[in-house]
Amino acid sequence: MLIVHSADRVELTPNTAKVFPRTLPDCGPTFRTHSMAADVPTRIAQTFADLRSARKMAFMPFVTAGDPDMPTTGALIRELASRGVDLIEVGFPYSDPIADGPVIQSSYTRALQKKLTVPQIFHEIASLDTANLPPLVAMVSYAIIFRIGTERFIKQAQDAGFAGFIIPDLPGDEAAEMHALVTGAGLDLIQLVAPTTPRERVQQIVQHCSGFVYCIAVAGTTGARDTLAAPLVEQLTWLKQETQLPLAVGFGLSKPEQLAPIQGLADGAIVGSAIVRHLEACTQPGAKLADVMQRVGEYAATMVTAAHRA
Question: What are the per-10-residue average pLDDT scores of the chain (310 residues)?
């Protein structure tokens, strides 16, 4: 289960409890949020605005925190930034991932087996020059946030340098309080919309969403696929009529040629498993980290080129 060792240390271990209240808890005195001025965009919003004005699509790779270790995660973030990626999604390992495929699940397992803790993640991120890096988005289970305390977690993530959150097990239509806390801190709460999500519910979800909408390309779990689902174009077209938020497509993207069909409809592309798979090589005997980083960087560069093609 997820064990709270002290007020400041939370260790992520297998069999994390899934049971927690649907409403946000009273976490006691932590910090007071201060809403940003309405005319001051968040880092994520500004990134998408700049790209949209340049008629470019954002490319956002996913990395697993702590796989194979946190110093490597920090080095990977710097490598990806040097290759021109626009945002970076950082996954917090969790023993019961909601929608992650086998590649990302395996990376979570490797990190958890090394007793990775949330403070270790925040410490490494804080050591980076995040102000001069692409916005970092935390993909994190609400079970982890709840155990630490919602406001406390937001403040720690903000101090470390994160720009926003994706919380896959937080129901979008019940996220009003979380949205208020996150945006009150000047960060973004990104919500997921699946192909099977009823349109009435999508309309509720986007009311408590900021930064961008994470559009799941295919029903099921994450993972690279050879083709994209046919209903995706229809969904993106409809969503553009429902919200002014940028739309980023994830789940199943892995190749540069897969970005062309969503050019003009989506504002961003998210790739996870394809990059995490490269990191698996670090577990092999004799593997050289520099070689792995080079391959990841070259792959990211090809995806950036495809995403930025006008």
Answer: 38 46 40 49 98 97 95 96 98 77 87 95 98 97 94 98 95 81 97 89 93 82 48 87 96 88 92 87 79 94 93
Q: How many domains does the chain have?
A: 1
Tell whether 168 is covered by a domain: yes
Catalytic, out of 67, 86, 89, 267: 89
- Is there a catalytic annotation at residue 100? yes
Asked if the structure places residue 105 within a domain, the reply is yes
DSSP one-letter string for the chain: --EE-SSS-EE--SS------SSPP---S-----PPPTTS--HHHHHHHHHHHTT--EEEEEEETTSS-HHHHHHHHHHHHHTT-S-EEEE---SS-SS--HHHHHHHHHHHHTT-BHHHHHHHHHTS-GGGSPPEEEE--HHHHHHH-HHHHHHHHHHHT--EEE-TTS-GGG-HHHHHHHHHTT-EEEEEE-TTS-HHHHHHHGGG--S-EEEESSSS-----SS--THHHHHHHHHHHH--S-EEEESS--SGGGTGGGBTTBSEEEE-HHHHHHHGGGGSTT--HHHHHHHHHHHHHHHHHHHT--
Say whether 291 is catalytic. no
In a domain, 8, yes or no: no
pLDDT at position 35? 44
User: What residue numbers bound the domain in which 231 lies?
Assistant: 40-307
- Which CATH number goes with the domain that contains 85? 3.20.20.70
